[in-house]
Amino acid sequence: MTARLATVAPDLVSRLDSLSDDQLGNVVAVAAREAVTRSGLDEATVSTALDLIGPGEPDTSARWAVEVIGTQLDERAWDIQELENDSQQYLDAFQRARAAWAV
Asked: Which stretches does DSSP call E strand in 57-96?
């Protein structure tokens, strides 16, 4: 697990470290789906990639497509912050970008 997560939830890190790869894949899928739902991210490519999360070989083309979306959403969030100075729009865009990267 990441060092960042260990600083805020060390108990969670130890629990996640004890899971099998299949169990961890299920946790990742649930967390990513929740991030997408809460952020309001509505992209067909992201939905398709979410359905592919789980055991087995990752779908690299789906992953690449979602990374492109994540990059675009990050750029949009920065544009909002720099040009429009609207903190709520920025936070919304930032959450969608983070949700895409979670996938």
From this structure: none
